[in-house]
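Open question from group meeting: does this chain pack into something compact, or does most of it stay loose? Before anyone orders reagents, we agreed to write out a predicted structure and look at it together. Recording both the input and the output here so the notebook holds the full record.
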Amino acid sequence: MSTPSGTIVRNLTFQSDDLGQETTILLVFDADMEGLYDTIYPVVWKVFTFPATGSCRCDVTYTDNLAFAKADILDENLVQTFTDFKLKPGQQTTMSLEDDDDTPSFSLPVNGTNGYLTVENKTGLLQDLALCFSVPTPYIARSEPVPALFFKEVEDGSKVTAQWKPVLRIYVKSDYQETEVLVDAINSTAILEQDIHRLFRNTAFNLERDPLIGSCKLTKTKM
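Structure tokens returned:
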């Protein structure tokens, strides 16, 4: 599926060669924002594991096609999304339930707070919601919503307002899973912090490990 005209697309490649030790990196959008780990929780985007020996390459795509979605928490704190609705910064929508089968639906967007995405819960129930970005899915007519931020138990009649900060942080961590909701900050320093919109459309990073002190780093390289 092709992306709409004007969409920001970022194709990221991570590669390694004889790291010397199996290494796992975690990608997440956990930039500082109001309400972080109180009402807003980051969701792990990707987890890649690179072998100790040999070469390895992992690819991932991001777009700025944003959407709100109904969400559920599964076992091990993993989030699953349903019924997403695309929204742009500065727009607002209202979530309600269809009378016949309680299927969530979203109203046509109207002007909201400049720079923010807003959804109002008018379902009559508590709702878990997620702010997602959409990525093209090969051979499927629609894109796949990727949860980035999770909002727990939004009360009926209340609004969720989010300012999307496309700041990607990458950590060397092996005890998290993709789509896991982070209830606390990761207790290590990111090896990369990058506004993903400021990268080229295609960017490659080499993952390297210092054999003396064991620390890892990511360096940009030519595709």
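Observations to bring back to the group:
The chain has a mean pLDDT of 91.
The chain is about 0% helix and 50% strand.
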